[in-house]
Amino acid sequence: MKRSTSLPALEPSADIAYIGIDWADQKHNICLFDSTIEQFDFAVIGAQPEAIAAWAEELRKRFSGRTIAICTEQKRGPLIYALCKYEFFVLHPINPQTVAKYRQAFAPSRTKADPTDAQILVELLLKHRDKLNAWKLGSAQLRVLQQFVESRRMLVAEKVRLTNRITAALKGYYPQVLDWFEDKDTQVFCEFLTCYPGLQTAQAAPKQELEQFFKLHHVVQANSFWAEAF
Questions:
Q1: pTM of the model
Q2: If you ran DSSP here, which 8-state letter would residue 149 be given?
Q3: Domains of the chain (ranges plus CATH)?
């Protein structure tokens, strides 16, 4: 989905192109201003990493790897870390409140003729570039490391979310197991729930079987564990 229009009211500077990205979970709305022809292009791309990569490579070819300024309402997250590996992008993260106030001041009617958020981001780049800070990406190795750090942060957040859901569910029908295990995000805890999914199955298990279970999982205090549990 793509359309073009010419809006000569802006005054571009040195970069070959200027892009505003109105990001969302499933798709990103794109506004691109091509300074060589002074024309806006509008498009929608998927939020998947492969969709962003294909779009970025298309821009590399279209503008021969020359510098492209990008403005978005994100300072971190999957979109930023997908873009930061491209050396020809200069990223300008911006506070969402800035866009909201700009829209309220210059496009208050909320009609179809009003500029989109992506276009507003481009206008901010073109008219107020001197007031926007470019995001320093650092070396290629640092950019890769930043992506790994962000991926780890997301995995940790997902682990916490799942652990909280499991804990909430167990409180309703199997609260004892929460007292037996200090850490709920371990392999031994998950496998214990798989083998003994309820209080009766745990209490009915032979002592030798339980000792073998904990021995296999390198739990050295199994005897005291069951002495306290029962």
A1: 0.55
A2: H
A3: 2-137 (3.30.420), 148-229 (no CATH)
